[in-house]
Automatic annotation (TrEMBL):
This is Uncharacterized protein. The keyword Transmembrane helix applies. Keywords: Membrane, Transmembrane, Transmembrane helix. The chain crosses the membrane at residues 48-68, 80-99, 105-124. It comes from Actinomadura darangshiensis. The keyword Transmembrane helix applies. The lineage of its organism: Bacteria, Bacillati, Actinomycetota, Actinomycetes, Streptosporangiales.
Length: 139
């Protein structure tokens, strides 16, 4: 991977983390709508640390998967985008199923969406095709 791609991917991940955190700040500390989720029968506020950790883990996992696919398939960007869209759909079950209330559900779903809106096109744009002789092809 070129250093330019590495920088662009790092900036994309950082941008997704920053966007989620900005949404949390605007809806939590600024507007007073503290998002919360129910886990293990208890309600807990979703804090800045959880927002940063969750979006950072998602971004790094997405980057890692793209890097792996670039070594394995002929069109990693296309394959990665499909997997990312499925992962987004599955991730939405979190805020839709465990948010403590409707406001929290909207805020948490918004965080998932804003991270995806930055990560999916941002990382897909950096994907490089693998030469056909090095790609894994279905038989």
């Amino acid at each position: 991977m070129s250093s330019g791609n590495r920088v662009q991917r790092a900036l994309t991940v950082a941008g997704a983390v920053a966007a989620a955190l900005v949404l949390w700040v605007l809806t939590g500390p600024v507007a007073g709508l503290d998002p919360s989720a129910e886990t293990g029968g208890k309600t807990a506020e979703v804090g800045a640390g959880a927002v940063i950790a969750g979006s950072l883990i998602a971004g790094l996992a997405a980057w890692g998967l793209l890097a792996l696919l670039e070594r394995m398939v002929a069109r990693p960007g296309r394959v990665w985008t499909v997997i990312a869209a499925v992962a987004l759909a599955l991730s939405m079950t979190g805020p839709l199923g465990s948010a403590a209330d409707g406001t929290s559900m909207a805020i948490l779903a918004g965080m998932h969406l804003i991270v995806a809106v930055i990560l999916i096109p941002g990382l897909a744009r950096t994907a490089r095709d693998v030469p056909r002789e090095n790609a894994v092809t279905p038989r």
